[in-house]
Design a protein that fits this description.
Order of helices and strands of chain B: EEEEEEEEEEE
Low-confidence stretches of chain A: none
Structural class of chain A: mainly beta
Number of strands of chain B: 11
Number of helices of chain B: 0
Helix content of chain B: under 10%
Order of helices and strands of chain A: EEEEEEEEEEE
Shape of chain B: globular
Oligomer: heterodimer
Distance between the termini of chain A: 41 Å
Mean pLDDT of chain A: 94
Number of helices of chain A: 0
Strand content of chain A: over 45%
Mean pLDDT of chain B: 94
Largest sheet of chain B: 7 strands, mixed
Chain lengths: 111, 113
């Protein structure tokens, strides 16, 4: 059975204090690993898709990396507007085309 | 439209009643997904449509839940005999095909009292 574990559950950072969020996964065959951002009362907003170990993608202050067992979302010099819940999800090659989500990391960036 | 649209934004219903939740996907997107999200949890898969047909409904919790997409665009999630445990945010997502990223709507918050 697919498993996605995100840590930490919650993270408070000072503005400008860089850190990383972790997503550990277990799937029979990884088709893709997805990162989404979710603001309160909103639907998840797509950030990145990673397909193979060693792949990296960047967008503004965010960089996502992937290994065979986990993914990291690195946040460099965060700003208060980066405060949100960050969700990780996996899609496997066999079976359903749906995404299997973790429970998310709730990030708060303090000015 | 510009994004995935879900109506209503909020729905309060009495236990035992029937509800319908609507999803308008991004124009041209053939794949459509329904998820359910409880407080503090990640979205949980319910059903996936490719075109008009339900390609995978393995996430529907029981036979009170049903979804349709008759013309391959708008989808309706139907819940019969609602229970308090059905209270959650119901999210719809669409993608251009099954291999690309899915874009989510803002969700419908369902409260069963």
């Amino acid at each position: 059975e697919d498993q996605v574990t995100q840590s930490p559950e919650a993270l408070r950072l000072q503005e400008g204090e860089s850190s990383s969020l972790n997503c550990s996964y277990t799937v029979s065959g990884l088709r893709g690993l997805f990162w989404y951002r979710q603001d309160p009362g909103k639907g998840p907003e797509f950030l990145f898709t990673l397909y193979s170990a060693g792949e990296e993608k960047e967008k503004e202050r965010l960089k996502a990396t992937l290994t065979k067992k986990e993914s990291f979302l690195h946040i460099t010099a965060p700003k208060p507007e980066d405060s949100a819940t960050y969700l990780c999800a996996v899609q496997e090659w066999t079976g359903a085309n749906n995404l299997f989500f973790g429970t998310g990391t709730r990030l708060t960036v303090i000015p | 439209g510009a994004g995935v649209s879900q109506t209503p934004s909020n729905k309060v219903t009495e236990k035992g009643k029937y509800v319908e939740l609507r999803c308008d996907p991004i124009s041209g997107h053939t794949a459509l997904y329904w998820y359910r999200q409880s407080l503090g949890q990640g979205p949980e898969f319910l059903i996936y449509f490719q075109g008009t047909g339900a390609a995978d409904d393995s996430g529907l919790p029981n036979d009170r839940f049903f979804a349709v997409r008759p013309e391959g665009s708008v989808s309706t999630l139907k819940i019969q005999r609602t229970e308090r445990g059905d209270s959650a945010v119901y999210l719809c997502a669409s993608s251009s095909d099954q291999n690309t990223e899915a874009f989510f709507g803002q969700g419908t918050r369902l409260t069963v009292v």
